[in-house]
Amino acid sequence: MTDIIYLDNAATTWPKPESVYQFAHEFYCKMGVNPGRSGFDKAIEAGNILEDLRKRLTLFFGGDEETPQRLCFGYNATDALNLIIQGLLRPGDHVVTTNLEHNSVIRPINHLVRDAGVEATFIPFNGAGFIEPDAIRKALKPNTRLVIVNHGSNVLGTVQPVFEIGAVCKERGVLFAIDTAQTAGVIPINMKEMNIDVLAFTGHKSLMGFTGIGGLCVRKHVEIAQTRAGGTGVKSAYPYHLEEYPYRMEYGTPNLLGVASLWAGQDWLDREGLKNIWNHEMKLTRKLVAGFKEIPRVKVYGCEDLEHHLSTITINIEGIEAGNVGIMLDVDHNIATRTGLHCAPLVHEQLGLVPTHGGVRFAIGAFNTEQEVDAAIAAVADIAKLSRK
After folding, report:
1. What is the pLDDT of residues 224-251, one digit of tens each?
2. In terms of domains, do 302 and 251 share one?
3. 143 is in which domain, residue-wise?
């Protein structure tokens, strides 16, 4: 299907299942009108898939089934995380987060620290790439309002112990939010069982949807303040933005094509099974890690425990900058990876990689093969030989 070996699935999964392309195309051709804005049949049918997907994703994430309207759609996880962070934190509040975070968490928090009198604590990860729940516990203060954690690192691939962290937060009465950009669609998530209060997701990664769709799932006991206002399609005479969900967190015309892609993505995930997808990806990841560890002068980060891991790994080749490795992989070996700081500068800072411009990230997806992994290992071995010169 592709003319390259695509190992950048942590950025976006590609290709998507063929069934996703087909369903989304057919649905948008037939029903691509504005849902919830008009009373004619096609508008009603378009609205139905939107509301049915709320219910479906609420079940998928283990949210409160009786309040599916609290599954709210937005552009992506970054959009959702901004709504969560800005809507929950006020002057004088304290937030606990981690060095594993993406800039979609780091930057909104830093803005609130600089501009709004919020206090923040960033927890380092341990030597294996994990956040220790006891470190979260020790960081909590009387004014701690929120703990927010990246469920799966987009640099190291480590999956954090959110069940244990959620238990700490519940015990102390602190709201707990997670960023599932890397885990949704691969790792089972149950908000109720894991004591997660708010969850942010994106559609274009392992949920197998298109870009431009994502959102948040909010438990029924949590109220997030509105930080935007606009059209909702209902109660147009009311002079303020509506306070009830989902309108409380949604603004303007929804991305119906994205909704259709997520619906078809859910169908595909149901057929394949999360466990089967993870097993396939991790079988290839173990092969990739083992191969890289055999190559002299190659450093692999955060792969001590692959039982609590995603198919994302980051490496460096001694003596060659990450960006140059990526160029050689692309130009000489037709392999697509991601190099640099991966929008997660604190990870690289803790690892000491900022001066060398980060690392080279390989992210295996559901459609990669053993032959492609073999080619990646051979390519890195070939490039590593240059580091001796």
Report:
1. 999 988 888 888 888 889 899 999 999 9
2. no
3. 18-271
